[in-house]
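in:
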């Protein structure tokens, strides 16, 4: 099927001017007839339809061109575009919430409310991967050492994942969100239960490996402070060995984000590195110091191991009923059920 530009514009509900613009940008290259009329073959029409669709969801012409020229997978760019749109949505929700507060209490300190809004936006946008998980992705499971070291953060790893799996008690048709899914070691377990799993990670390489191993998992680019999931859409949330990458003062924001996407009566399990409280942290660090185990001290201080008592208090304030289990000095399971 060969069409001229006006016919293509009519077929795709666009304008000849728009089509010529994409041609100028190098996105499409129609053939030319002997009298210099543009001729569009079926593959060119399909490509133009794709370009128009990508523009509708907010991708720039440069992003589209880079995708086409570099042979990059479209799914990768769509995933990032979805993350951007969710970020914009969260920002709008924050702004509306701040406006509601300002209207409800006009005599309040508007400057402080605006400052809080700015800081929240910066926190959501400033997330960075200090630990280079893209580089770790390919060999992550091979490098996952569970024994044989004087200090081993993954001691009890298999037990922690199994307990998390059992506590959630997933059912057929439920939607679960695994935050920091990595290569899929925890989230994939729920597939056999017939649950739909959304896997979220900040690392594109981790997501790619997870997707290659478990195509059924809906992998999404995101992080604790900006979850690319709609409000009240998850029946359960899991996260393992990930929350300790969130700074202590930001953990409450992470819990609020999880609360946002969790349905009433939903379940949450956190299997992670943490201490009972500040006193226990000091005791464990002192014990390692007495042993001369500087590697252990450096490893702990390089991360943000949670204060479990603070996590529990914050979850209870958000309306959760909380239960805890301790696997070893630094590995804990926090299970929380959201009240209706």
């Amino acid at each position: 099927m060969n069409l001229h530009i006006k016919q293509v514009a009519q077929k795709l509900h666009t304008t000849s001017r728009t089509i010529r613009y994409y041609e100028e940008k190098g996105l499409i290259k129609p053939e030319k007839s002997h009298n210099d009329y543009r001729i569009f073959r079926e593959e060119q029409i399909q490509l133009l339809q794709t370009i128009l669709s990508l523009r509708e969801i907010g991708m720039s012409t440069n992003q589209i061109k880079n995708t086409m020229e570099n042979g990059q997978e479209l799914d990768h760019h769509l995933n990032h575009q979805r993350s951007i749109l969710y970020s914009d949505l969260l920002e709008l929700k924050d702004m509306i919430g701040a406006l509601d507060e300002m209207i409800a209490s006009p005599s309040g300190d508007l400057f402080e409310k605006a400052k809080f809004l700015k800081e929240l936006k910066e926190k959501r946008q400033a997330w960075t991967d200090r630990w280079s998980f893209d580089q770790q992705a390919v060999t992550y499971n091979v490098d996952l050492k569970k024994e044989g070291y004087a200090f081993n953060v993954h001691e009890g790893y298999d037990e922690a994942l199994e307990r998390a799996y059992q506590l959630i008690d997933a059912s057929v048709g439920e939607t679960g969100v695994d935050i920091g899914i990595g290569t899929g070691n925890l989230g994939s377990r729920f597939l056999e239960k017939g649950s739909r799993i959304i896997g979220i990670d900040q690392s594109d390489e981790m997501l790619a490996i997870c997707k290659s191993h478990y195509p059924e998992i809906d992998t999404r680019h995101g992080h604790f402070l900006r979850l690319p999931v709609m409000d009240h859409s998850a029946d359960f949330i899991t996260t393992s060995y990930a929350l300790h990458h969130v700074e202590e003062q930001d953990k409450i924001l992470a819990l609020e984000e999880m609360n946002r996407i969790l349905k009433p009566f939903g379940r949450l399990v956190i299997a992670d590195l943490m201490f009972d409280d500040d006193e226990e942290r000091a005791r464990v660090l002192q014990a390692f110091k007495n042993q001369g185990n500087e590697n252990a001290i450096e490893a702990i201080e390089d991360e943000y191991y949670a204060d479990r008592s603070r996590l529990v208090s914050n979850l209870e304030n958000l309306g959760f009923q909380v239960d805890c289990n301790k696997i070893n000095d630094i590995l804990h399971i926090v299970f929380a059920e959201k009240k209706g």
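note: Residues 180 and 201 are 5 Å apart (CA to CA).
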